[in-house]
Specification:
The complex is a heterodimer of chains A (about 220) and B (about 260). Chain A is mostly helical and about 220 residues long. Chain A is built from 10 helices and no strands. Chain A is globular and about 65 Å long. In chain B, helix 2 runs antiparallel to helix 9. The chains are: A mainly alpha (about 220), B alpha/beta (about 260). At the A-B interface, helix 1, helix 3, helix 7 and helix 9 of A face helix 1, helix 2, strand 2, helix 3 and helix 7 of B.
Chain lengths: ~220, ~260
Amino acid sequence: MDWFPVWLSLRVALTATALTLLAGVPTALLLARKRFPGRNVLEAMVVLPLVLPPTVLGYYLLVVIGSRGPVGQALAAVGVEFAFTWGAAVLAACVGSIALVIKSAQAGFETVDRQLEQAARTLGRSEWSVFWSVTLPLAWRSVLAGAVLAFCRALGEFGITLMVAGNIPGRTQTLPLAIYDRVQAAQMGEANALALIAVAVVVVLLFGLSRVARLRY
Amino acid sequence: MRCPLLPAVALAWLALGSGPARAAEPPPLTVFAAADLVFAFKEIVPRFEKALGVRVTLVLGSTGQLAQQIEHGGPADVFFAADQAFVDRLVAERVLLGETRALYAQGRIVLATARAIGWKLTELRDLTGPNVRHVAIANPAHAPYGKAAEEALRKAGVWDAVRPKLVYGENIRHTLQFLQTGAAEAGIVALSVATVPEIDWVPIDPRLHAPLNQATAVVRRSPRPELGLAFIQFVNGPEGRPIMKRYGFLLPGEF
């Protein structure tokens, strides 16, 4: 059996989860703590990828990053082709999953007792230090839950990836695309094996995480 | 917060980086092909690889989606559409090389019955019967075989009666799956994908719909247009034609 889709999917999902955490946690904190003009618009934008059908999102992304799109042409000017690469699959996974990180983390940050943060500030902690030593430790379960949801969504991402990364065997064919392809070709044995692997990955991940969570608290 | 997960994740990422790495070799010829070619091309491609000593990456999808991707820089060398209109549009937009355009097949549609239900439909009129509750066809809005199915149903005068029973597949393979799983009792699919054990079929008179002429062309951006052209000639040549014929396509010169 060809294991490429499995490795590719794991790499794409891990990279996408890291990137969505990097971008999503600050956004969640912003939404949880600050009142600013355009906040409602930002909040709506965040959940938009969950509302729009993935293939439609994928089409719009392709129009932007494809060879005729503004971003695609800018990248081509510096010799980079982004659409139809594994990087495009990461972008697809990020777009599909970032809302899950932001909404979970935001809910977590909103339940953190502000007085504890104030206490840390009166003790001379900087805002940066308050976040790492008070806010995040109190909200980390929500952040972790968001990360797990994002990873699973990234691993299962299909529609956006199909459009912007293509379904190219050996290059951008992720696990879900490979399963779809096998089903289309009536190779049910391989499709079942790949689906089983996807299930196994998630079971192992969730089992490992629950162990980590129990060890820590 | 010092998280024990972070180093583990970073390590896993690095390890996976070496996983997908492939040995350095000339990039394969990338063929974007319509879903109705799935079975025929799985036979033709290995023969072409052997004959010319090149590797081929076969990307199957719906004609409309593949056309959009090629238009936006999709890394195809050759495009095989299920409907010549898509090829002609991309030739007009100078995305495909007009001088390489060729017809390679004419598709046929069949009336299919899911074997699981225990009887077999013999004509389009049978679809109006009370024992057929779901009729699967490809989406006529964008799938060439779906359009042909709609035309045939209209020409046979049963469109209005069948319409409430219709379920649309995204492409012709997806439509076939409705029948293979027994979710739809009957449907209209391409002859090229109809030879599966789960269904029975009878041909539909081709005069009931506009001909499903299928065309191909080499992509202008392709770095090796001559190799793409060689693949087209292989499909249309003495090696490819018998295979295409076996999967129920009419061939250029026969229609």
